[in-house]
Amino acid sequence: MVKKILFTAPDTYQPRLCMAMAEVQNSVIRPVFVPFINTFLYTKYASFVEFCRVAASYDYVICSSMMAVWALQSSGIEPSLLEGKVIAIGNDQKAVRDMLGFDSIMQDAKPSMMGIVDALKCQPALSAKRIAALMPEFTGLPVPSTITNFLNALSDTGASVTNVYCYCTVAMGQEHYAKALEYILEKEIDAIAITSGGEAHVLSKLLSFAVAQGKPIDVPIYSYGPYTTRCAQEVSLPIAGTSPKYQSFIDFIDYLSTK
Fold first, then answer.
1. pTM of the full predicted structure?
2. CA distances from 54 to 48, 60, 86, 129, 258 (A)
3. What is the chain's alpha carbon radius of gyration, rounded to the nearest angstrom?
């Protein structure tokens, strides 16, 4: 049976989700895309400009997402100054190789932010190292606990950590809820798939708005991985299932295809 699934991921994720659906055999998903958040590069942040100026002085450069990899690609930094320093999560490691021309390090780390922290703790003389964490700034959203916990854990390693803002994550404004709700109801979706804590935050508000309008959305919600699920639980969002594998979107689509 073909299932209509609402994907709330940002526009920048949609091509990768579509590619994943094309690769998963016997996928029965018919996607409906409504981005609840959007992300865009903003490399004029003072912290990123300064990072570019002194990039060679860092021992490790952490990419928190694909957007951070794109920021490095657009930075103009000589790749040789970054090679052997860049750490990326899961499938973003391929993006480092494709966009920057070299392999990221610590590729065996668990594909999560805390997995990166655990891998760093195994490195010698970490307290003497300098780390740049390339992060998003949030607009219209609280900073997800996954980000806060990661930065706190990174700081607790004893290394010298610099938070570098290089892209912005923006929530769908409440003025768009009515139109979004109308579109979602028109599509008669069977389920909702979320890939981040920001999406969970907006979804919780939209579901409340729908109830207030007398048009509740009562379908199961599926999560990309445990960290997204944790953020969803913090806003009392009921999660019907969490993908047990979250290395890539192919894992997520494969999981959704079984539901």
1. 0.84
2. 10, 13, 15, 14, 48
3. 19
